[in-house]
Amino acid sequence: MAAVLLIAGCSASPAPSLFPAVLDSPPPREESPLSPDQVKQATDNLVAERNRLCAEAAANGNPAAGNCGAAPAQSAGGAAKP
């Protein structure tokens, strides 16, 4: 019985595979990637929201608010440069 299951697991199936074939290309994107200006705007919005939430947490006496200044602000290009 175990041998039959192992052999059946190796057989080809008419159902589509869960994994794509090795040489299949992904379909083209439906949306274009963000422009550098859009990335900068999104980053600025996130930094402003983080600062607002940290200030709100500090005003409410939340002890975790002391960690807000620990994370350095990063540029839109990725990791902070030394």
What is shown here, in short?
The chain is mainly α and 82 residues long. Helix content is 40%, strand content 0%. It has a domain at 35-70.
Polypeptide structure, described:
The structure is a single chain. The protein has 82 residues and is mainly α. It has a domain at 35-70. The protein is built from 2 helices and no strands. The model has no long low-confidence stretch (mean pLDDT 76).
Number of strands: 0
- Calculate the mean pLDDT score and round it: 76
Structural class: mainly alpha
How many helical stretches?
Answer: 2
Poorly predicted residue ranges:
none
Shape annotation: elongated
> Which strand-content bin applies to the residues?
under 5%
**Main sheet characteristics:** none
Ends distance: 62 Å
Proportion of residues in helical segments: 40-55%
Radius of gyration using CA atoms only: 25 Å
Summarize the helix and strand pattern as letters. Answer: HH
